[in-house]
Structures are given as C-alpha cells and as structure tokens.
Amino acid sequence: MYKQNYRSKLLEDAVEQIASLPGVGRKSALRYALHLLKEPAANVEKFTSAISQMRSGVRYCPECNMISDNGLCPICSDSSRDRSLVCVVESLRDVLSIENTGQYHGLYHVLGGIISPMDGIGPDDLPIKALVERVARGEITEIILALDTNMEGETTSLYIYRQLAASGVKVSAIARGVAFGDDLEYTDEFTLGKAIVNRQLFSI
User: Cβ neighbours of residue 121 under 8 Å, at least 6 residues apart?
Assistant: First the structure.
C-alpha cells in the first residue's frame, strides 16, 4: 500500500493523529496540519490547550451522566427544568440534538451506549440501574425513551421498560416521525422536535 513521504517525521506524526479523528481522511488531515503550521504559534497553543483542558477537565454529571465542567451539569442544576420528566438518550450528541429543537424542557439520563452483544455491551455496562434508582426517589412521573430506532436501540428500550415496569412510572417513546434505523444525531430539528412532543406510550 502506498504511503506518502511527508519529508518530516513531525508532520507525519501530526497528520497521523489528526487522521485518527472520525470522518477525517489523510488528505484532509494533511490540509489541517499544514494550516496549523502556517498559524502563529500563539493560536496553535490556544487550540491545543483548549483540547487538553477539555480532556483533563471535563467530568460526568453524577445525576444524569452528561458532561459537566464541575459538579452537576447545567441542565440538572437548572431550577426551571421540569424535574418530573427524564429523557433517556444514548449520548451527549443526542442531548444536543434534542436541546436544539427547543421542544423539551425536562431532564436527561445519558447511557453512554446501548445494549449490543456484538460489541460486548450488556445491560450491566450501562447506567440503567442508576436510572431505576432515580425513578425510585419518586419525583419522576415520566421516562421518555429517545434511543436510536435500530435493533440495538429497540432492545435497550425494551430492557429499560421492563426494569421500570414495577415502578408505576409512565414510560413513553418518541413518535415514529423518526424512522426505524435512523440516528437521532442526523434527524432534522423539526422532525425530532415533533417526535418528542408527539411521544407515545411505550408498548411491547
């Protein structure tokens, strides 16, 4: 396989690291590296410092498992949010997608993944027990399952539904404006907003 000779080990190492990012090919990585090479050193320092600080400083909210700079995340600590509603999502990207709709004002529970035996991810690898414990406190009246509508997402939703069956809490799912197999991250804001508003009771 042809490997480009960058004539510089430092440049090659930089391209290698940039190309490791999702969706970034080696040509794009080279373009980004050469752009950074032309930038003033102070700008590159700001760039690398911001990434380094994010990686070392970001924490996970002890309540919902979303990222937080310190302690509770901004959503959990916002007294104006409806604390009786909790929307269960796979990742931070899904939280951002739902927030961008402006249609949801409750809290979240971020799983950080979905049940996927093929990938070695089982129920015990996800914070589902923590969700059950949140419901047991009695303040939550509805759980909204907003997981991707693929096989793994449906399996995870079903498992959570069964875990919450004895709690008496209402369990709903986003409306089927989001087609089977779609990722929430790539669903347009209008469709996703309507799917949240028009959510339906979860049923087997």
Answer: 113, 114, 115
pTM exceeds 0.70 for this model: yes
> Could you please report the per-residue DSSP string of 55-98?
HHH-EE-TTT--EESSSS-TTTT-TTSEEEEEEEESSHHHHHHH
Structure tokens that stand for 167 in this block: 């709690």
**Which CATH number among 3.40.1360.10, 2.130.10.10, 3.30.1490.480, 3.30.530.20 corresponds to the domain 67-201?**
3.40.1360.10
Q: Percent of the chain at pLDDT above 70?
A: 89
| pLDDT tens track for 19-39 | 999 999 999 999 999 999 999
- Cβ-proximal residues to 72 (8 Å cutoff; 6+ apart), any chain: 61, 62, 63
Architecture of domain 9-57: Orthogonal Bundle (1.10)
